[in-house]
Amino acid sequence: MLKVQDLCARSPNETLSGISFEVPNGQILAVVGRSDSGKHLLGEVLAGKGHIISGEIQANSYRHRTHRQKIQIQTGYLANPVELEEFLTGFELLDLIGSLYHLAPKDRSRMIESLATALDLGSYLYGVIELASLATRQKIGLAAALIHSPRIIILDEPAQYLDFVGQELVEKLMLDHAREGSSIVMITNNLELAERLADEIIVLDQGQKILEGTLQQLINQTKSHTRSLKGVMETVLGHA
Q1: What is the pTM of this model?
Q2: Residues 6 or more apart in contact with residue 126 via CB below 8 angstroms
């Protein structure tokens, strides 16, 4: 379970003001909004990468103010753009990250193999990341976020750079983790992806939450005629 209460934060490009929400175990929350709405800052803060001015984050039984490190250990984060050690191969990076989370060698190998299969990495897993395509980097970044089986998962544009086959693989992986009980926050401009996967959706604008609910609730609140998330966004923001 992820619970956020009255969160305020600031970065050079974005702000968050009084953001509150809850993501129960086994659910996916989509966060959408304009590029400067605060949604990317929200991902950084939830992952422990940004500075909180005020408010509280609770991950399962741990609170940010008293157990920040424990929250980070049980959180998986995919940044946008993805952050990788480019001089390593994909396998070397995943093995290193797994060791940092104190996974035994056999468990690291098992998880790397499982994630490589789920994301169809194939031989790309053994190439140097510096030479990899954007799509391969994205998949390795996803694997790095998930290798320790986190209970809290923060994904900023998880399907970026992927073709329709890659997007389907990512969608299945996210749904599998939700079924296993993880709380997932997906930050995205891909409104169709949000429609398909999210149990609830938050719309941010200028650092504030302006809408929250299921897709049907958002449609009802905004009286969107197109009955889609794109229609909701056009109604409240003037464009998707």
Answers
A1: 0.96
A2: 89, 90, 91
